[in-house]
């Protein structure tokens, strides 16, 4: 069990960051032969296993998959909020040799002569470069095509969590954050195979939404100032190759609005872009945009711009419509 005590200052410094590399790491574990991935990941896992089996460049990743669960951070650096995996891989390549050797000595005592560990002691720079190349080969073969969809999912999650924190406070932020997490103010507890305790003010908290968190849950400890914790992003059904069938004919909301508009409306539990909704439903962005325009004209959804993106969310009217005709508990959704 990991216990993280969070005081007011620590909570105020809490951040949310994207990390394609952390997602890649968790997906490695989900693709292991003995795992049975859930529905959204089934077809993807077939391709990922093929890449790991047939591409010799990925061999350096075996240490991450088969080695001890507690590993040094240089093998999976602390997220910096980059949306490019290449940026994170550059961090691995630039790891100082002293940091590599210290991490191996701390996390792999007695295993220094293991054939997958010894290279990090003999030639840290070359070993880190080989690891980065292995990550990249796996990324290109197993995840690169999915990344546009994955990026929208985690970016949407960041926005939803940030707005939840700003409008409803820390209790709402941690609600549903992680199936194996429990928030009992002022302590966040994480169910893990190791025991650790962090007092208030020791480190700030960094939350990392992942599409492949089903593979494993991560928390980073080597940084003396930051404690990073991963959690599952919503909308992973967007990874499926074919959209699910539409609502049944008995669906009153679908009868009233049409099945397309009803399905769009149901996605708006939190702010989403047109592209984000299209990914989830397997529809063309132009089709979703047309539905959203009609719904906005009817004051069922509202739109607001954040940077270059336009986000849609339910109005009070939209929430009431869903509650009355679909029986969905959305009357207290984030506004």
TrEMBL record:
Name the domain of life this protein comes from: Bacteria
Name of this chain's protein: Helix-turn-helix domain-containing protein
Listed A to Z, the keywords are: DNA-binding, Transcription, Transcription regulation
Q: Does the keyword Iron apply?
A: no
- Domain (HTH arsR-type) spans 241-335
Entry annotated with the keyword DNA-binding = yes
Task: List, alphabetically, the SUPFAM superfamilies matched.
Answer: Winged helix' DNA-binding domain (SSF46785)
- Which PROSITE patterns does the entry link to? HTH_ARSR_2 (PS50987)
A Pfam family per the record: HTH_20
């Amino acid at each position: 069990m990991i216990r993280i005590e969070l005081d007011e200052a620590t909570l105020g410094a809490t951040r949310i960051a994207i990390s394609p590399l952390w997602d890649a790491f968790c997906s490695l574990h989900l693709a292991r032969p003995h795992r049975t991935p859930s529905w959204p990941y089934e077809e993807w896992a077939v391709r990922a296993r093929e890449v790991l089996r047939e591409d010799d460049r990925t061999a350096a990743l075996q240490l991450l998959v088969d080695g001890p669960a507690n590993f040094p951070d240089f093998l999976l650096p602390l997220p910096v909020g980059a949306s490019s995996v290449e940026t994170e891989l550059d961090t691995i390549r630039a790891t100082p040799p002293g940091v590599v050797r210290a991490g191996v000595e701390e996390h792999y005592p007695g295993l220094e002569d293991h054939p997958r560990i010894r290279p990090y002691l003999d030639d840290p720079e070359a070993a880190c470069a080989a690891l980065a190349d292995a990550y990249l080969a796996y990324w290109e073969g197993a995840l690169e095509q999915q990344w546009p969809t994955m990026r929208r999912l985690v970016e949407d999650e960041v926005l939803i969590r940030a707005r939840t924190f700003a409008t409803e406070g820390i209790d709402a932020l941690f609600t549903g954050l992680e199936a194996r997490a429990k928030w009992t103010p002022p302590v966040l507890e994480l169910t893990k195979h190791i025991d650790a305790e962090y007092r208030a003010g020791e480190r700030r908290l960094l939350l990392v939404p992942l599409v492949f968190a089903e593979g494993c849950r991560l928390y980073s400890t080597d940084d003396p100032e930051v404690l990073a914790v991963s959690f599952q992003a919503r909308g992973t059904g967007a990874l499926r190759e074919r959209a699910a069938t539409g609502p049944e004919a008995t669906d009153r909301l679908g009868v009233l609005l049409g099945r397309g508009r009803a399905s769009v409306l149901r996605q708006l539990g939190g702010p989403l872009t047109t592209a984000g909704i299209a990914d989830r439903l397997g529809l063309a962005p132009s089709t979703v945009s047309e539905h959203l325009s009609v719904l906005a004209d009817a004051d069922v959804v509202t739109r607001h711009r954040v940077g270059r993106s336009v986000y849609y969310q339910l109005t009070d009217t939209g929430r009431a419509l869903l509650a009355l005709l679909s029986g969905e508990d959305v009357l207290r959704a984030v506004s």
